[in-house]
Sequence to fold (531 residues):
Amino acid sequence: MLLSALLVTTMASTRAPSLGNGNHDEGKVINDAFYGPMYFPFLLVAIIDTLEVQRLRDIKQLGGTHYIYPTGVHTRFDHALGTCHITGLVLKILRERNSEIQDLLTKEVILSLEIAALCHDLGVGPFSRVYQDQFLSKIKGENWDSNENSVKVFERIVQKKRAVFEKNGIDEEKIKLIKYVIKGEVPPTDVENRFLYEMVRNRRNGIDCSTFDKILRDCYFVGVKSSFNYMRIVESAKICKVKKEYRLCLRYKEQLGVSALFDSSWALQSLVYTHKTTRAIEMMLAEAMEKADKHFGLFEARNDPEKLFKLTDFIFYKILHSDANPDSDPEMAAAKAILQRINERKLYQFCGQTSAVPKNQPSETEENKRPRTDTVDRDTALSRANENRMRQNELCRKVKNGILSGNKIKLPLVEDDIRVEVIAILYGKGRGDPLDAINFINREGKLVTRAATTHCRGSRGALSSSFYDEYIRVYSSDVGKDKKREITNRFYKWCLNNSYDVPVDMEKVPVENEFIEEELENSGADGATSR
Fold:
């Protein structure tokens, strides 16, 4: 009895100030593995308990990563709650420390941004990034913005809970604010208060509450060590006017702390998100989705919240346990066979990786080095993404055709034997130094230039001069070693003939002939290289 009372007292003492009706009994405390007890007022609880938000329980944050990192099974629901918690905490600290914005950061405005944080991922598809990056972008050739879909799903919640919204002071103006924050866009009519719209999703420099929770949570659950401490950044933050806009500024002495954020992001991308086996599994998931598309309407659902609402990671088991007959329904049977291969660990086999930039070509142009200091509108961002996707797809076709047309070593190859992809690993948001896009201030709150601060790039700076790296990866869809050897050797020869680096770990691939060793000796190559 005494222990129960102590636990209740301890949890109550850690609650954040209520932003609802002032009655803590109407809210809830939810315990989080990383943050501990998190308090949510009545309106947020009402939103959490909608089917739209509860759907996120069935979508893993890291797609197919849990097949490689078994503890990486946290969900978009966990991330939504954590982002909401951090957003409220950060805004309350900023309100206390910035007298000039205290009138702006009313409890209704703070509550609105917490709602945006809670709902910012409502529009994601099955297996998170697999649906958007692999299925829609690479297979269907579609540039899709899940943020727009999140807004559409949020509108469904507003229709259901309008009376509760109005009771808590969330009127039409606040709902418009929430929608802009979810999209990460700044309306032309309120550019002065830019920091509000960049609090949850910051397209300019990546310093936002969603990124904070994503990095912390992903590192925690997959076991990647991180020195990033979001509270040090928050403690050094101040809202200052920059170019007639209120922006989030950081003390210049916290550059190392900010670098720790980008170091952790780069480590997650390198070790987890783009792990060679993770990518093989996610390619297989996307191909299974493509073959089962006509049964579940996966492609049509991208712009239809009603249909997408019914799609979660459980589609895996719907396909796997289907009674598809190879004669009557060959596509569904093929999708089932792919998922069975995943469960039985008969995966696409990694054959090699090399830099996507030829040795005789500069790794970075002046345009690539230019830091992203300003946001771009949605149409421009989608246009750039489409251009990048087309460029990467063309490079994949070039590599695949080169392998197929290469001289046969032992076995003939067909197109379906080979999988090629181009992966990108970013240190920050853009291709330049992310710290250049952050506004730093001194002790007096005055802006300082990077030249006046210590040039800090974190551990990544010791490993590469680039903030954006692209790699070509080649896989064999066959589980046999012979096909893998054939593809590996042909890819190696293609790299030599086209002035690309020797594929990573190529000299370790067991071969029955002396082709690789002879080529290494003749070319003077000294083994695997990477950028």
Notes: The chain has two domains: 10-275, 348-432+467-531. The first strand starts at residue 28 and ends at 32.
